């Protein structure tokens, strides 16, 4: 948060709620995965939200991470040598990672905004994106994921069923239990809607 002073009142409450969503245990697991996926050359961040932000801020490690999930020759993010020092170039690098993550299959609602990482506004959103990326990599199981598969949950996959025409016809004759059963049902003795009950004294 380079040019921002302290926040007060409602802004402070909102920011503290966002910061409480950050998970330190998840941070350790994500760092382990990034190091396993990209190699020890990426180094390790200092512990805590600020350490992770500084480590990922220039977008180089994020670019290497998403590139490692693609086969050789089709890397979506260009990694500049040396790493960019100008702010807009770093933000552009992060934006390339976000585009590549979306192309990989991460849902738009799981993708953080560049400022969430760059200004440290919502590091929990950054964690969410990385978890979604890791889950997709485990689910795809295409040989590019490195690390412990138990670090991320597998996403549900489609289980398509093909029914024959005769099976579909048979299904039309069955009354599902959700609709109830009509065995022994009778409307004898019921009155029509809206008619008052007849009371005879």
From TrEMBL:
The question of whether Acetylation is a record keyword is answered with yes
User: For this UniProt entry, what is the primary localization, expressed as one broad class?
Assistant: cytoplasm
Give one Pfam hit by family name.
Calponin
* Chain intervals with Polar residues compositional bias: 179-190
Q: Where is this region: Disordered?
A: 179-201
Name where it's found: Cytoplasm
What Gene Ontology cellular-component terms does the record carry? cytoplasm
The record's annotation in InterPro entries points to: Calponin-like, Calponin_repeat, CH_dom, CH_dom_sf, SM22_calponin
Tell me where in this chain the Calponin-homology (CH) domain is found.
24-137
Xref: Gene3D superfamilies: Calponin-like domain (1.10.418.10)
Tell me which UniProt keywords the record has, alphabetically: Acetylation, Cytoplasm, Muscle protein
- The answer on whether this UniProt entry bears the keyword Cytoplasm reads yes
Family classification: Belongs to the calponin family.
What is the recorded name of this protein? Transgelin
